[in-house]
Specification:
The complex is a heterodimer of chains A (162) and B (139). Chain A is an all-alpha fold. Chain A has 7 helices and no strands. Chain B folds into 2 domains: 32 residues; 95 residues, Beta Complex (Ferric Hydroxamate Uptake Protein, Chain A, domain 1).
Chain lengths: 162, 139
């Protein structure tokens, strides 16, 4: 970040993190149905570099809340990867682009998350772990696509006011 | 990003939607091809239960069960827990309670030395295999 953070920036990021955590916990009872993907896409598009601070705080909070485990290592790269891909697509104008990005991210979530198992147990373990989760990845992908298509525009308008 | 662009944007989204659909179909196909299928008929298996005192009970049985939970019940092992979207989340085995939030412990399930990738009521059992149910303290 080139400029210094202002009090307003810090307050804004606090709200962004709170919304992210609230959305995550509110839908925790529905496996693989979440709004974190959509929010990270929106934050990257409309709050630019602040996403770096927000993601760092989000990852730390998740670690403190649920305990540091292998899942946390996965989180360290999957969410920043989503933000990075969104940043690369920031000039795209169609809501469909981001809805399908969210959908593909959901579909590939298990495949991305099995990477640590490549190092821990080898390709067989990683593959078996990924296969077991594919039904949940399909739910994740489809629900991400639908939620992003339905909520992107209204939430975008809120973000633009920020 | 303009409203008109959001609402219209021609049919540019179609290729991306096709990519999404293709990935979903390919992943579904991989799942159907490679996920372990339940096997009917009699199987000889061994189930080892390691409790909170690190004492091991060994059960060797012949069973027609297809999934580990049924096989455990056939062996006389009591298994209870809460039902979730992911299947049965086991918290009590043979009366020993493990809860990550309450006593920092959980029941871990292994097929041989490999951690089971499926819930206990979705874990397919195979003839000749050893399954281990281990009371594990979270690190």
């Amino acid at each position: 970040m080139k400029r210094k953070l202002t009090t307003r920036d810090i307050a804004e990021m606090g709200v962004m993190i709170a919304v992210l955590e609230a959305a995550k916990h509110a839908l925790a009872f529905l496996p693989n149905v979440e709004l974190v993907t959509l929010l990270i896409i929106l934050y990257t598009l409309y709050f630019q570099e602040k996403i770096c601070y927000v993601l760092s705080a989000f990852l730390l909070l998740e670690g403190f809340w649920y305990g540091i485990g292998i899942w946390w290592v996965m989180y360290l790269y999957v969410w920043p990867l989503l933000a990075w891909v969104t940043y690369l697509l920031r000039k795209k104008e169609s809501v469909w682009v981001f809805s399908i990005l969210a959908g593909i991210f959901g579909l590939c979530f298990g495949a991305l998350c099995c990477i640590p198992y490549l190092f821990l147990g080898g390709i067989r373990t990683a593959f078996a772990w990924w296969i077991a989760g594919i039904p949940y990845d399909l739910v994740h992908g489809v629900s991400n696509l639908i939620l992003c298509r339905a909520l992107f525009l209204p939430l975008k308008n809120v973000c633009k006011r920020g | 990003m303009s409203e008109s662009a959001n609402k219209g944007n021609g049919r540019k989204w179609i290729p991306a939607a096709l990519v999404f659909a293709a990935i979903a179909v390919i992943f579904g196909g991989i799942y159907l091809r490679f996920s372990p299928a339940a096997v009917a008929g009699e199987k000889n298996i061994t189930i080892e239960v390691v409790d909170d005192k690190q004492e091991t009970a060994v059960y060797t049985l012949k069973t027609d069960a297809e999934y580990l939970k049924e096989a455990m019940e056939d062996a006389g092992i009591s298994v209870t827990g809460t039902t979730s979207e992911y299947g049965l989340m086991v918290d009590t085995v043979n009366g020993v309670y493990a809860s990550y939030s309450e006593n920092g412990a959980y029941w871990a399930f292994y097929e041989g030395d490999d951690y089971c990738n499926y819930g206990v009521d979705q874990q397919v059992i195979q003839d000749g295999k050893t399954y281990r149910v281990v009371y594990t303290l979270a690190e």
